[in-house]
């Protein structure tokens, strides 16, 4: 397949399909080493400033209980 035909085929696709093609090309570029993986740029999660930002909140000591409360109050379900 030649480049002009490929470009014509790509532009004839609906926007959602074009996004899927673009995402797949980005995946292939990472897989085959033509661009660095985003994983190589990431630091440790524990070093991120948001980690622990709610550690002193009394209402979030039990995250499961907190989420269940949200579901019950906002959506009317949860155990």
Plain-language structure description:
This protein is mainly α and 79 residues long. The chain has 2 domains: 1-42; 43-79, no CATH class. It is 49% helix and 0% strand. It contains 3 helices and no strands. It has helices at 3-11, 15-31, 63-75. The model has no long low-confidence stretch (mean pLDDT 82).
Chart the SSEs and their pairings.
Layout: H1 3-11, H2 15-31, H3 63-75
Uncertain stretches = none
Helix content: 40-55%
- The CA-CA distance between the termini, in Å, is 56 Å
Q: What is the alpha-carbon Rg in Å?
A: 22 Å
Mean pLDDT: 82
Taken from the alpha-carbon principal axes, the silhouette is elongated
Order of helices and strands: HHH
Instruction: Say how many strands there are.
Output: 0
* Total of DSSP H or I helical runs spanning 4+ residues: 3
Characterize this entry briefly:
The chain is mostly helical and 79 residues long. The protein is built from 3 helices and no strands. It folds into 2 domains: 42 residues; 37 residues, no CATH class.
């Amino acid at each position: 397949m030649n480049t002009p035909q490929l470009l014509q085929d790509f532009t004839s696709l609906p926007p959602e399909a074009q996004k899927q093609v673009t995402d797949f090309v980005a995946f292939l570029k990472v897989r085959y080493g033509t661009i660095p993986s985003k994983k190589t740029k990431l630091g440790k999660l524990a070093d991120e400033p948001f980690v622990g930002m709610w550690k002193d909140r009394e209402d979030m000591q039990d995250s499961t209980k907190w989420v269940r409360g949200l579901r019950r109050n906002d959506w009317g379900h949860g155990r």
